[in-house]
Amino acid sequence: MERNKADNRQKLNWILTGAAIAFAALAIAVCLLLKPKTGAADRFVIRYGDGKTVAFSAWETRTVVIRDGEIADRATGEGDENVIHIENGEAWMEQANCPHGECVKQGRLSEETAKKRPLGTWIVCAPHRVYVELAEGGQ
Ligand SMILES: [Zn+2]
Predict the structure, then answer these.
(1) Could you tell me the distance, in angstroms and rounded to a whole number, from the CA of residue 92 to the centre of ligand 1?
(2) What separation in Å is there between the alpha carbon of 76 and the centre of ligand 1?
(3) Contact at 8 Å (CB) between 133 and 116?
């Protein structure tokens, strides 16, 4: 009889331990599943040249110069040049010497403006083949 009680107590302990582990595993699984959904679009991926990409956090302040399909140190206005500015979660084409400057007219891209812009999460400079995409982090 005493022994049965001890056995039962041990069984209960195992059940409780198992339940605690299962609960922890479930909690971690839920966190992992929810993460991509709550993950904000918080970086800008710039595509240029022949399939080159470079990505920056949307929350760093940075000016990126692309000239003739390469990243350049500073703007000179020579060649096929685009100047992209990133600041406070927004990116925009600051300068470009493409024929019509359409990319400059596309204005500011951010998580907020992406909902209303005709090009959504993209800034496109078709003549220079420079593309800026607002993307989720960790992809
Ligand atoms: Zn352009």
Answers:
(1) 11
(2) 16
(3) no
Residue span of the structural domain in which 60 resides: 41-136
What pTM does this model have?
Answer: 0.72
Q: How far is the CA of 98 from the centre of ligand 1 (A)?
A: 5
Question: Which residues sit with Cβ closer than 5 angstroms to ligand 1, an ion?
Answer: 96, 98, 103, 125
What pLDDT was estimated at residue 36?
A: 52
Residues 79 and 53 in one domain: yes
Task: Give residue 27 CA to ligand 1 midpoint distance, Å.
Answer: 47
Do 59 and 107 share a structural domain? Answer: yes
E strand spans, 69-113 = 70-72, 81-87, 90-96
